[in-house]
Specification:
Layout lengths: L1 H21 L29 H7 L1 H8 L55 H4 L8 H4 L62 H4 L2 E4 L2 E4 L61 H4 L50 H4 L15 H5 E2 L2 E2 L62 H5 L29 E2 L2 E2 L33 H4 L2 E4 L2 E4 L14
Antiparallel strand pairs: 1-2, 3-4, 5-6, 7-8
Length: about 525
């Protein structure tokens, strides 16, 4: 037992000796909880110096300032330095890790320069616990971190949130808070002109007690018209636009209505409006406010709402102006911005040809296909909306209706051989009673060609002409007789076709007989 006890004591002394050899000295009081060999890597990289990242992982408040580019630690004096260059350690418990001369410190390096009254303020008047927002920093006995740069972080908001607390310098500076030296009333929505320049501020901006504190109202004041501040001696008889007759130099100055310059209003008199007398528009008196945003406020809508937008408004200026309702100034270029562009023959068509329908003008059409204006001469002979013929433009153009361009390969009957040289009318316009034939035509040869064989090769109401003929050449150059019931061999090979296949007549129809009921020898030989 005594041997074990001595071994434990020996290891203890060895450990203490080794630690004393490794550690250069005691940590400061702020870091004393990190004392001991097992905590070295909390700050040091194994086998290396103190790592800034480890410092900032612990001192998050400093890390946030550096990331946001605020405060002294983000200045050029500090950036790129090791933390240990300014904040030493292992100098004993009483060593002050944070050391600098407050009287000589250049505050502009914090990116908050001390100007005006701020330059006369003592450090502790601003750097105190009640102004610090971060709880971790509030717990420190003394710190210069944690302050914000906004005015309201140190000063009470006299305006109680009615003005932006981020832009105090728009009106104030650090030399003197009152009166607001930077404020210019002409930069506000209400410029002071005329007699308004002589009015005391408190006449408009009243002082009151709000939330048990003195408060002066600067926002939310009504000033859209004179009666917001002034009593209307006319009691609404002439409206609220006092400037029609009065000026802000003096309310007693009344303008001469006979020489009234209408161009100073929002509605300038141009074109035929110039010739109108005042009472033609101002039917209820010269002072009554008129609506004039849209032409239909004064004029009846000739188009009866047809050209109104989705919001219900009508923009007459798109086609007309004040110099006369006709002719329309709607151009071809404007028309081509719509869904229906004027091209080819349409370019020369007068507007009324399309837009004067049933003795009425019409400008909006639910459909703009050809049949809206043109008769479909093909009627039921064509099927629109298919892969073959989508619409009229599949074959025709606006340049010339008679010029037809159609890809016949889209159909199930491709034009090859001699068919490629045949004019369209040969197949599609051969019946005077039904001049246009398209979908009614079949692919059977006899749809266009006469059956010279008198139906001999008809099977299931169809002739398979392609078994012997082709569109390349109608004449039969080679025929394999072995595919029939009678194979030609021996002496038969030297016999001409017409010796067996002779022309006959049945019911006045003359034709060459190719099919026989009896193909035995006796049918030809005696």
């Amino acid at each position: 037992m005594n041997g074990i006890k001595y071994k434990i004591l020996f290891l203890f002394f060895i450990t203490q000796y080794l630690f004393a050899q490794i550690s250069p000295g005691d940590l400061s009081n702020a870091h004393k909880n990190l004392e001991g060999m097992s905590n070295c890597t909390q700050c040091h990289v194994l086998g290396d110096n103190v790592d800034n990242k480890k410092c900032l992982d612990c001192h998050t408040e400093v890390n946030e300032l550096i990331k946001s580019n605020h405060g002294f630690h983000s200045s050029s004096d500090v950036k790129g330095k090791e933390c240990s260059e300014c904040h030493g350690e292992h100098f004993g418990r009483d060593f002050d890790v944070i050391r600098f001369d407050e009287d000589k410190f250049d505050h502009s390096k914090t990116k908050f320069e001390l100007t005006g009254k701020h330059s006369e303020t003592k450090c502790e008047e601003c750097h105190k616990t009640e102004f610090i927002k971060i709880k971790k920093l509030k717990e420190r006995k003394k710190t210069f971190l944690g302050l914000e740069t906004s005015c309201v972080s140190c000063h009470s908001d006299f305006h109680q949130g009615t003005l932006s607390s981020d832009n105090c310098v728009d009106c104030h500076n650090t030399e003197a808070w009152r009166p607001a030296p930077n404020f210019l009333h002409n930069n506000s929505k209400f410029k002071l002109v005329g007699a308004h320049k002589k009015v005391d501020c408190e006449k408009c901006h009243k002082k009151e007690i709000r939330n048990n504190e003195e408060f002066q109202k600067f926002t939310g004041l009504k000033f859209s018209n004179c009666v917001s501040c002034h009593t209307d001696i006319h009691k609404g008889k002439f409206g609220t636009n006092c400037a029609e007759c009065h000026t802000n130099i003096s309310f007693k100055n009344v303008k001469n209505l006979k020489s009234f310059d209408h161009s100073k209003t929002r509605f300038q008199l141009i074109g035929k409006h110039k010739a109108l007398t005042c009472n033609e528009c101002h039917t209820k008196g010269i002072r009554v406010k008129l609506h004039f945003e849209n032409c239909v406020d004064c004029h009846s809508d000739f188009h009866k709402g047809e050209l109104a937008s989705d919001e219900g408004t009508t923009d007459c200026k798109a086609c007309h102006d004040e110099h006369g309702f006709a002719p329309s100034k709607f151009t071809i270029e404007e028309h081509n911005k719509n869904n229906f562009k004027l091209t080819g023959g349409h370019f020369a068509v007068p507007c009324n040809e399309c837009h004067f329908v049933d003795e009425n003008w019409k400008f909006k059409f639910s459909k703009t296909d050809c049949e809206t204006c043109h008769d479909n001469v093909h009627k039921e002979t064509l099927k629109f909306g298919t892969a073959v013929v989508e619409d009229c433009e599949t074959c025709h153009t606006t340049t010339a209706w008679s010029s037809v361009s159609f890809e016949h390969s889209k159909t199930e009957f491709e034009l090859i051989g001699k068919h490629a040289d045949v004019s369209c009318s040969k197949c599609h316009f051969k019946d005077e009673k039904l001049p246009h034939q398209f979908v009614s035509l079949t692919q059977n040869c006899e749809s266009c060609h006469t059956d010279n064989h008198n139906g001999q090769f008809e099977e299931k109401y169809k002739n398979n002409c392609s078994d012997c003929h082709s569109p390349i050449e109608w004449a039969i150059e080679t025929f394999d007789h072995s595919t029939t019931r009678f194979t030609i061999d021996g002496a038969h090979e030297n016999v001409n076709c017409n010796e067996c296949h002779k022309e006959i007549e049945i019911d006045v129809n003359k034709f060459v007989q190719y099919k026989f009921e009896d193909v035995s020898c006796k049918s030809c030989h005696t």
